[in-house]
Design goal:
The chain is α/β, with parallel strands linked by helices. The relative contact order is 0.10.
């Protein structure tokens, strides 16, 4: 695309000169950061401390460079002319003056000084006389847009209204990737982003009100203003992987990398939740009662009656009575340690009991022997000297029974018992070391066990949970996490894992050294070139990487189930089940969270229709609710078409106010059921042709997505669809949080029927469009659409007929 030169002497041309200075400064800073990073890479530092400092410097300059690179597009987007006569330029990052003194060349959008750019109004100008939006393409200024906030200031600019930059952003063709909005943030959004609330902040807003984009900008703001947060990282939780791909560019684009993006299903390291299960089973697994079921399942594995009554010890068989078993279990439970860690207490108590029992028996035996010997001696006339010898060996009346098997003997007995395979097997049966996976597999595979442990569920509900082991579903992940908490770490397993992990790191380090040596010597082993391999062996390289925190915060956090994040952002938070909430609260013990969602869009049967219901039990009233009320995505015509649906869903909720009209009315068309695929292909082609490079989505029920995708030639589809493709076919669950220039909803009745929350799903599907919406319904229209959306005149009419 060619870029028109601004008019000579125009405000755009004046700004071009300043913007060029900013880019020069950016280039200088980048070159400096690159030099320092290269210097750190070259430095071979001798002591461990020097190496650690070198690695830290390398990481610091890499991060700085990434930040400076990310600022390339739209480096500067605003200017404020202040009442005192000074000016402040606002941009994606701050650029200090070259001498380090005086006013900065550019103020970071997150700095307090930049705030008036977003919130100043004519009524409350906050010391700003003029706000100038500077629109750039590449490094060229293509337009400026002025708003005069102080009537004393002379009008200026190229005549565009103050909202023009926002409207241009809103109507621009979609790309399949979410963009940042630093240049056009609105005051109500800015207030949420900069909220100084330290605890849980809930952002409720209808479709398209900017909840997602605001949450992401809040993450960037918090990382900027609370540098310590970066050390713990920020977790962004989204509803599915398609959504995470869609938003994946926003934070890196703002120069922020200390962020882990994940679905709840990704949050149990080592488990890939790709098993599919009926929605009914997932809903049951999401209920809070499952925490009780799991606690009962763990308890049932602790010294169950009937286990370990007879314990093989060498050639003997020891009997363990119920009382001793119960006492040991009570002692272990009273510690409140998780199951696997409490096992040591239980085992110790059992072994102690057995050792004492053995000692007592030995002593009793010795007593008996002694008595028998005494009787014999009394009866027989044995020589006095023999009697004295016997007495020395422990004769009658000389010692207490304990002295025969003394304290040291008991200790030795305990050691023998603890090492004995028979005793160990009995302890394993009595109090097994359990993994979360084993606990769940054994629970769900056994209807009788389930019946005993989940009396609160109906027989039908329990039957829905029964399944064979083999893979995990998304709804299993919070249960695995809950089980992991109840069980505690199994140190032995952790030790094996750590050893395996170190072996992996060493193997990798060896590969690095081999490649390095090969690269430097060109494969010539005799070449006189010093390589890293000459200085380090693979083991120390692996350790050094670990020591220096070679992994980023995000990598370490993602690999550690028990990582406590500094802040957690949850998008589409209304979809989370009770069990998922429990998992997330554990990930954020500091309870610094931003939760965004819309309780009218809930589609997951395990999700919630009330923030209060979810949060009060966990936080009391220690959470704050903020609302977003303006719809930036969906034009007025489409919002009108969804009014009936919203009224049925949430009668008390006012629809978000659209900022614009698209000039195109949504349409619907009744089609014969059998012809839906063919007609859909035809209408999709017609819509795509109208978009001139924009994006079209066909949205249908999850169950029909594959079938209808096959009918639309060239459409992206499947579990990880390419959202940048011109046409994509999605199940409604996948479409959550996304947006497209045009949307075709196929088979709305199917969406309504597929789930108890079908109306919420249809509302989601219809509100994904930024410009155009068409609906193809087999047979008559669902009642909620019949009057709300006008029907196209002719079944095979061109989509272009829908223009008003
Ligand atoms: N201030 C703004 N400037 C420019 N674009 C904006 C602004 N606010 C929101 N938008 C745009 O509006 C669209 C909707 O935003 P977003 O997806 O964050 O809404 P949402 O509330 O999460 O929607 P939903 O709940 O329907 O998924 C996005 O394209 C976003 O970039």
């Amino acid at each position: 695309m060619t870029v028109r030169e601004p008019r000579a002497g125009s405000p755009a041309e004046q700004e071009q000169a300043y913007v060029a200075v900013l880019y020069q400064r950016l280039d200088v800073l980048r070159a400096e950061a690159a030099d320092r990073r290269a210097e750190a890479a070259r430095d071979r530092g001798g002591t461990a401390q020097a190496r650690a400092e070198r690695d830290a410097a390398f990481a610091r300059y890499s991060a700085r460079l990434a930040r400076l690179e990310a600022a390339e597009n739209g480096l500067c987007f605003g200017r404020m002319d202040l009442a005192g006569g000074s000016r402040l330029y606002v941009g994606r990052i701050g650029l200090p003056a070259p001498d380090g003194e005086g006013d900065p060349l550019l103020v970071d959008w997150r700095a307090p000084a930049a705030r008036p750019f977003y919130v100043a109004t004519a009524a409350a100008p906050q010391g700003v006389r003029r706000r100038r939006h500077i629109v750039t393409r590449g490094r060229r200024v293509v337009r400026v847009d002025d708003e005069i906030l102080d009537s004393a200031a002379a009008p200026s600019g190229d005549g565009l209204a103050g909202e023009a930059v926002l409207l241009a952003a809103l109507t621009a063709g979609r790309t399949g990737r979410m963009r940042d909005i630093v240049a056009t943030l609105r005051a109500e959004q800015d207030a949420i982003i900069r909220s100084d609330h330290q605890g849980v902040l809930v952002v409720q807003g209808g479709p398209g009100t900017g909840k997602t984009v605001v949450a992401l900008h809040r993450a960037a703001y918090l990382l900027y203003t609370r540098p310590r947060l970066a050390a713990r990282g920020v977790l962004v939780v989204g509803p599915n992987s398609t959504f995470l791909t869609y938003i994946g560019q926003v934070l890196p684009g703002l120069g922020e990398t200390g962020v882990v993006s994940a679905t709840v299903a990704d949050l149990f390291p080592g488990v890939v939740a790709d098993r599919v299960e009926p929605a009914a089973a997932a809903e049951i697994k999401g209920r809070a009662v499952m925490a009780e079921v799991l606690a009962a399942a763990v308890r049932a594995r602790q010294a169950p009656p009937g286990q370990g009554v007879s314990i093989a010890f060498g050639t003997e068989v020891l009997r363990l009575d119920d009382d001793a078993r119960e006492r040991a279990a009570a002692l272990a439970r009273a510690s409140s340690l998780p199951h696997n860690r409490a096992r040591a207490l239980f085992a110790d108590a059992i072994i102690g009991h057995l050792a004492h029992r053995l000692a007592e028996e030995t002593n009793r035996l010795a007593d008996r022997l002694e008595a028998e010997v005494a009787d014999i001696l009394a009866e027989a006339d044995i020589d006095r000297a023999v009697r004295e010898d016997l007495a020395e060996l422990g004769g009658a009346g000389q010692r207490e029974p304990e002295e025969i098997v003394g304290a040291e003997d008991v200790r030795e007995l305990r050691r023998s018992l603890a090492a004995d395979p028979g005793v160990r097997a009995a302890l394993d049966a009595l109090w097994p070391v359990l993994t979360p996976q084993r606990l769940l597999d054994e629970l769900f595979a056994d209807p009788d066990r389930l019946a005993g442990l989940a009396p609160g569920l109906s027989a039908a509900e329990r039957a829905a949970l029964v399944r064979r082991p083999g893979g995990w579903t998304a709804a299993d992940v919070p249960l695995l996490d809950e089980a992991a908490e109840l069980l505690g770490a199994d140190d032995r397993a952790a030790g094996v894992r750590a050893a395996r992990e170190r072996a992996r790191r060493v193997a990798y380090a060896q590969e690095v050294l081999d490649i390095d040596a090969g690269a430097r010597t060109g494969g010539d082993e005799t070449a006189e070139v010093l390589t890293a391999a000459d200085l380090l062996d693979a083991g120390s390289l692996a350790d050094r990487h670990e020591e220096a925190g070679g992994a980023t915060v995000a990598e370490r956090a993602a690999a550690d189930r028990t990582w406590a994040f500094g802040h957690v952002i949850v998008d589409e938070a209304q979809e989370l089940s009770e069990m998922a909430w429990r998992l997330l609260m554990r990930r954020c013990p500091g309870r610094s969270m931003t939760l965004v969602g819309d309780v009218a869009q809930t589609s997951d049967p395990a999700g919630t229709a009330s923030w209060d219901r979810v949060l009060r039990p966990r936080l009391g009233d220690r959470w704050r609710l903020a609302r977003l009320s303006v719809n930036y995505r969906t034009p007025a015509e489409i919002m009108d078409a969804t009014a009936g649906l919203l009224a049925e869903l949430r009668p008390e909720q006012a629809p978000p106010r659209p900022v614009r009209e698209a000039g195109v009315r949504p349409w619907r068309l009744s089609v014969p059921a059998r012809e839906l695929p063919a007609l859909l292909a035809r209408y999709a082609a017609a819509e795509a042709a109208l978009l001139e490079g924009g994006r079209l989505a066909v949205i249908t029920s999850d169950g029909r997505a594959a079938e209808l995708a096959a009918a639309v030639p060239g459409a992206a589809a499947g579990p990880h669809p390419d959202l940048t493709a011109p046409v994509v076919v999605l199940g409604v669950t996948q479409a959550k949080g996304l947006e497209f220039d045009s949307v075709l909803v196929a088979d709305p009745a199917g969406i309504l029927a597929a789930s108890p929350r079908g109306r919420g799903d249809l509302y989601v599907a219809m509100t994904r469009a930024t410009q155009r919406l068409g609906i193809l319904h087999p047979g008559p229209a669902p009642a909620v659409l019949a009057h709300a959306v006008p029907e196209l005149g002719r079944p095979a009419a061109s989509a272009a007929d829908s223009r008003t």
